[in-house]
Amino acid sequence: MRIDIITCLPRLLESPFADSILQRAQDKGLVEVVVHDLRKYSLDKHHRVDDYAFGGGAGMVLMMEPIVRCFDALKSEREYDEIIYMSPDGELFSQAMANELSLKGNLMILCGHYKGVDERIREHYITKEISIGDYVLSGGELAAAVVADAVIRLLPGVLSDETSALTDSFQDGLVAPPVYTRPAEFQGFKVPDVLLSGHQKNIENWRFEQSVKRTEEKRPNQKK
Ligand code: SAH
User: Fold this and answer.
1) How far, in Å, is the centroid of ligand 1 from the Cα of 93?
2) 144 lines ligand 1 (CB under 6 A)
């Protein structure tokens, strides 16, 4: 898989991909994440990428031209399965969407900034709009990192234990059961006996019951 992220603030996307699981995934060649600085595609001598909104009002708007030049440059190299725009009014991101995207080959993600992007980009170039929640961020970068993280950890071989992504919350319509580690007792707080019993079947049953109970408590409307 290859993920191209287009932003006017590339530094915001440096650290999320430079550590831990996401970095290892790239080192192993399972995914390539390439961040593109929109300013490099600006023909303006000051590398401007934004301008005032027609009709007036506060806030700058990302201009079409640098974005389209970047899209064209990337599209001339390979085909893209989706050209995604991060947007607070997009489709709400979910585990199901992460699963779907993890099956694709090449993804492009455009990050907005300021007031957003010229609407004609959304109308004519974007194939999918994603929101990470009903709140407004100052830019699409953190949202793009959230989407890329959720997708990359699903790629086969990224997590050391292949089954561990499958036992995460939401994969089976249930949230995950509680987990514990050593010591078995700390300041009088004990780990449930069943987890220390060594009886695998009972442990599995207990975990499943806990998942069901937690889902009812924490996500009563979760679709099964
Ligand atoms: N004026 C816009 C908000 C712009 S916020 C509005 O009211 O809808 C600037 C940029 O941050 C957006 O273009 C988008 O790319 C990103 N962004 C903000 N909130 C987001 C969210 N919840 N999910 C995804 N992207 C978001």
Assistant:
1) 14
2) no
167 pLDDT band, cuts 50/70/90, is: confident
State how far the Cα of 101 lies from the Cα of 40, in Å rounded to an integer: 28
* Alpha carbons 68 and 155: distance in angstroms, whole number: 29
Q: Give per-residue pLDDT as tens, 76-100.
A: 999 999 999 999 999 999 999 999 9
Return the closest-CA partner of residue 223 out of 215, 213, 134: 215
**Nearest CA to 92 among 146, 139, 138?**
146
- So what's the pLDDT on residue 222? 81
Using a 6 Å cutoff on CB, does residue 112 contact ligand 1? yes
If you measure from the C-alpha of residue 198 to the centroid of ligand 1, how many angstroms do you get, rounded to a whole number?
49
Q: Is the pLDDT of residue 8 over 80?
A: yes
Q: Which residues contact 16 (CB under 8 A, 6 or more apart)?
A: 22, 145, 148, 149
pLDDT computed for residue 212 by the predictor = 97
CB 82 within 8 A of CB 130: no
**CA distances (Å), 51 to each of 36, 37, 39, 56, 114, in order?**
20, 17, 13, 11, 10
Q: Is the pLDDT of residue 122 over 70?
A: yes
Neighbouring residues of 17: CB distance < 8 A, sequence distance ≥ 6: 23, 26, 33, 35, 145, 148
Dihedral of the alpha carbons of 102, 35, 10, 73, in degrees to the nearest 10: -120
